[in-house]
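User: I'm preparing a small set of examples for a lab meeting where we compare how different chains pack in three dimensions. I only have the primary sequence for this one, and I'd like the structure in token form so I can line it up with the others. Please keep the answer compact; I'll paste it straight into my notes.
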Amino acid sequence: MKILFLGIGKTKHKYLIEGIERYKKLVSPFADIEEKYLKEEDDRQDCVKEESQKLLKNIPPVYFKVLLDIKGKKLSSEDFSDKLKSLRDNSTSGIAFIIGGSNGVNEDVRKAADLRLSFSDMTLTHQMIRLFLAEQLYRAFSIMNNKKYHK
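Assistant: Understood. Below is the structure token output for the 151-residue chain.
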């Protein structure tokens, strides 16, 4: 299974990069995770529109699109695992996890998403959520494969 982390702005903190790399390695027997981070626009009013258009242009057309969104659906780790298993078993060619920049995304990205997923009612940084997503992917694949990690 191919998984794409598609976001705005680089991951800047070493501890986040190291954590993401750790979980990518743990996930590698089950899925191939690619990261693609697009240039952050200057902080001005129209930057959300520009960043959103860049995100939409970079989503592989056949991928299942998951927008990480504070107003999205909340799933337990088990339900998240079931969703990934269902996508895998239905021969989904890939999943794009879309992570907006610090100013969010516009309605076009929300409409394009096949699933809007929330990790918390709290606001999390667009850099930090990448680590949480990587960990939850490993947890989901552990659940799917009856590995000890989740128990």
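A couple of notes for your slides: The first helix runs from residue 14 to 27. The chain has one domain: 2-150.

User: Perfect, thanks.
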